[in-house]
Amino acid sequence: MPTVSVKRDLLFQALGRTYTDEEFDELCFEFGLELDEITSEKEIISKEQGNEKAEGASDVILYKIDVPANRYDLLCLEGLVRGLQVFKERIKAPVYKRVMPNGEIQKLIITEETAKIRPYAVAAVLRNIKFTKDRYDSFIELQEKLHQNICRKRALVAIGTHDLDTLSGPFTYTAKRPSDIKFKPLNKTKEYTACELMNMYKTDNHLKQYLHIIENKPLYPVIYDSNGVVLSMPPIINGNHSKITINTRNVFIECTGTDFTKAKIVLDIIVTMFSEYCENQFTVEAAEVVFPNGKSHTFPELAYRKEMVRAELINKKVGIRETPENIAKLLTRMFLKSEVIGDGNQIEIEIPPTRADVIHACDIVEDAAIAYGYNNIQMALPKTYTIANQFPLNKLTELLRHDMAAAGFTESLTFALCSQEDIADKLGLDISATNAVHISNPKTAEFQVARTTLLPGILKTIAANRKMPLPLKLFEISDIVVKDSSRDVGARNYRHLCAVYYNKNPGFEIIHGLLDRIMQLLDVPPGEKKRGYMIKASEGPAFFPGRCAEVFARGQSIGKLGVLHPDVITKFELNMPCSALEINIEPFL
Amino acid sequence: MADGPVAESLLRRLEAGDGGLDSAELAAELGVEHQAVVGAVKSLQALGEIIEAELRSTKHWELTAEGQEIDREGSHEARVFHSVPPAGLPQSELMRLPSSKVGFSKAMSNKWIRVDKNAADGPRVFRAVDSVEDEVQRRLQLVRSGQAEKLGEKERSELKKRKLLTEVTLKTYWVSKGSAFSTSISKQEAELTPEMISNGSWRDRPFKSYNFSARGILPDSGHLHPLLKVRTQFRQIFLEMGFTEMPTDNFIESSFWNFDALFQPQQHPARDQHDTFFLKDPAEALQLPMDYVHRVKRIHSHGGYGSQGYKYNWKLEEARKNLLRTHTTAASARALYRLAQKKPFTPAKYFSIDRVFRNETLDATHLAEFHQIEGVVADHGLTLGHLMGVLREFFTKLGITQLRFKPAYNPYTEPSMEVFSYHQGLKKWVEVGNSGVFRPEMLLPMGLPENVSVIAWGLSLERPTMIKYNINNIRELVGHKVNLQMVYDSPLCRLDVEQGSPQTQETT
């Protein structure tokens, strides 16, 4: 969930009233936001870097507000205030308009070289905008929030904003070999080639995270003006030439990306949020984008869409009984201008360009419910009549684990993920013999594979509890995972039961007795008969030679028991003899 | 018959005399160690009201070993004086005597002897007076005869400083007859025996009283894991509410069931390598229900069923990618898909509690795997009010009655609501679960009828368990670093009963 940090006093000024922290928290809760933290720049720095560093930092109170991940229109102070003011019916939702310029329209021409790396671009102009320090900071911050969220760290969309008065159109969006791109990047005084830049930014804490997007591509995307000035090399860096400042009056905005829909949404959000500060409030100057196929489109789209929903549907989905007029009013408070039309039961809802999250009637239903107040909805129990059933494997597991405890064994709960070493080397096996599923992106060795046996987890549990009085008698009934090409995903779980006895003597007879008890509980008689169970001398690298037996039940091998091999004991950092049993319980379902 | 000869003498003397007697005096009279009398007193006390014994402590002075020697043989200085014959003695010879080290200088300062340093054969010692009074010996003799009080405070402390006297505190008992005094007491039995039962002798025997303030011996037993005890209770609650358990025994899931089927777009951050464990082997799902896959593809890329869709290029390769399921909602999706294939539609209530996996940064409350609890109801005409009603009943069974609901965003539910409960300990509202109505874009491609709604909620098993059992570090609860003592000691899991933990404070 993105967190937006706003200055409290600036927020209250824009809202036209003050709130206590509790009142504002309550308002957020009702609207679906969360007042996450009340802090200041000074407090943040002092928490992160110590009191000395915080010396002289601003102690203006900041509200950190958690915003739902799909509400891009609430990612800046301007949007938050507009949303809350409309919600509280203090203002009407503004209408965003695209206008044609008095002179020639700004043009961005996309060349076909971009197709393989970053094929889409959209653009718009904010004309006669008036920045202040706070507005400028918010403008930059909004781009950062969009980059981190909907733009997926610039992979899907990257935003460039430029001082239009320093440039001269038409603009060209193309892709070139890195060595052929040379310009002065943002906040640098010298020109660098793209190769040099990529090298330089490897150590830049902010920019290094974006390099991978184009790093290994033969051509890098780049935007030029008609004089060959570089506007930007998306998604990495803008040029210094067209850098916007607090005094910039005309802003050229370009969004390039691999996802056309998202690029259009991002452009719509930026211009709707900041056209508030244009001389003609809430108007945006159009720009023309010419695609490699020669077709041209005008942006921003700023599309208003009409949806039709019956009042009855909303009442039925929420569980309320409101008149169509009231429901239209509720929706209007959520920035969805609505009116009752037709037979008096139809509601026509206008979805503004800021609400790209509304894609289905269910989104409209939710907004009606929020405006109504979740906590005002009458609770009711569904009349759904059903008979409950347990999942048979879990039912058996529940019964068995209680009787395992009754037999004097203590339940452990170990991780399903572990290292290759745990399931292979430490048990004297080669990893290829385990049939384990392998994780491709583990952050540490602890998460290399899914366990193929419960034994390592229990032995590690004993190792972590060596201070406890002996004997230690532990068990676990849980799932292991192995590859299985007969399953849709190519792998399956098996429910295993594992028990370990750890003491000064190996206690094979105790583990053997436990097996006998388990079979008694499962109503499996001893003997070679079809329904019976037996153990047969066997061997395995994890067991001491001559002290290992295979368990057969209901005509199949279900596991092994025996005294663990001293090498296994030592590899798990243990020093006492130890016997163990591990079986698959699924044949007993 | 008394417990021993000392106890018997004690009882006889108490019977003969009136008043009482002092344990130390009795020891002196009987010629036994004082400790023997104390033992007798204690064993008689244990029998009940036979005697009364009052502990007294008295202080008296005793001679040290050196003091006793002086008492017998005179002070060191006197012994030095007496060693010097009238004709004198060479100092070197005198100094060989055992008492001389201390005695010589003392005798000199008392002016009892003198030294002639100019004698022919070296320094020679002579008597300076004819006779001496050995005051030190006299004082020590007084102490020995029990008349220490005749000495002044100053004299006593001087002797104490010379380590000839010590002050001793003696704990004695003043013993008198008790309310059930008797000289004929018998030895008490420790335990009832089979013989006593068969021959009836238990009727006539006294028994030693038990110490009820001591702790008993804990039985040898096995123990269930606290987290799984809580799991059992949650299963019980769902079963009480008529919910059927879904199969969740497949940790490996395809991206299709984990994300795509839930209408979670392929660029969603949760599908990032940083959040999800993907598989290297087997890297891809072998089979997908292709008819259904096509409907899912269409809803993502083009919309449909009244939805705009996400309008992006949906890729089958992305859906095939295998992963460790990030939520049990993947299993719910499979269950709902199976339900959708049954015609006609029958209402269903489902639940599951099982492991899920996240490739997250680990800390005191986050592990790479945890248990998710999920409840699902599918029926015609379910409302948000129904969801809230079911949640109220569910949380009431957990002992949580103060609830409120906050609008939230989940990719696959709309409307969505986070569930908060008021925490008395923290004095604030804390999130206890997440819930919502599954999106039509998820349900309709499965083939569920249009007027069927599916409400669902989820929470983690670890969080309520940590609150219940007052555990701050999740590693002490889950995984091999568990504290087994904690497992041994953990009480029953009774979610709706107050036990003084923060969780139950919520219930009040």
Structural write-up:
The complex is a heterodimer of chains A (589) and B (508). In chain A, the strands form 6 sheets. In chain A, strands 4, 5, 6, 7, 8, 11, 12, 13, 14, 15 and 16 form an 11-stranded mixed sheet that branches. In chain A, strands 20-24-25-29-28-27-26 form a 7-stranded mixed sheet, with helices on both faces. A 3-stranded antiparallel sheet of chain A has the order 1-3-2. Chain A is 27% helix and 27% strand. The radius of gyration of chain A is 33 Å and the shape is elongated. Chain A is built from 16 helices and 29 strands. The longest helix of chain A is centred in the first third of the chain and has 16 residues, at 133-148. The mean pLDDT of chain A is 94. Chain A has 589 residues and is of the alpha+beta class. Chain B is of the alpha+beta class and 508 residues long. Helices cover 34% and strands 21% of the residues of chain B. Chain B contains 20 helices and 16 strands. A 7-stranded mixed sheet of chain B has the order 7-11-12-16-15-14-13, sandwiched between helices. In chain B, strands 1-6-2 form a 3-stranded antiparallel sheet, with helices on both faces. Chain B has a 3-stranded antiparallel sheet with strand order 3-5-4. In chain B, α4 (65-73) packs across α8 and α5 packs across α7 (100-109). The longest helix of chain B is centred in the middle third of the chain and has 15 residues, at 226-240. Chain B is elongated and about 135 Å long. The two termini of chain B are 62 Å apart. The relative contact order of chain B is 0.09. The model of chain B is unreliable at 501-508 (pLDDT under 50). At the A-B interface, α2, α8, α9, α11 and α12 of A face α11, β7, β8, β9 and β11 of B. β22 of chain A pairs antiparallel with β9 (279-281) of chain B.
Helix amount of chain A, in percent? 25-40%
Strand order in the sheet with the most strands of chain B: 7-11-12-16-15-14-13
* Unreliable residue runs of chain B: 501-508
Q: Helical element count of chain B?
A: 20
Number of strands of chain B: 16
Kindly state the percentage of residues in helix of chain B: 25-40%
Shape of chain A: elongated
Ends distance of chain B: 62 Å
Based on Cα principal axes, name the global outline of chain B: elongated
Q: From the helix content, strand content and strand pairing of chain B, which structural class follows?
A: alpha+beta
Largest sheet of chain B: 7 strands, mixed
Mean pLDDT of chain A: 94
Return Rg of chain A in Å. 33 Å
The low-confidence parts of chain A are none
Strand content of chain B: 15-25%
Q: How far from one another are the termini of chain A? A: 44 Å
Number of strands of chain A: 29
The structural class of chain A is: alpha+beta
Largest sheet of chain A: 11 strands, mixed
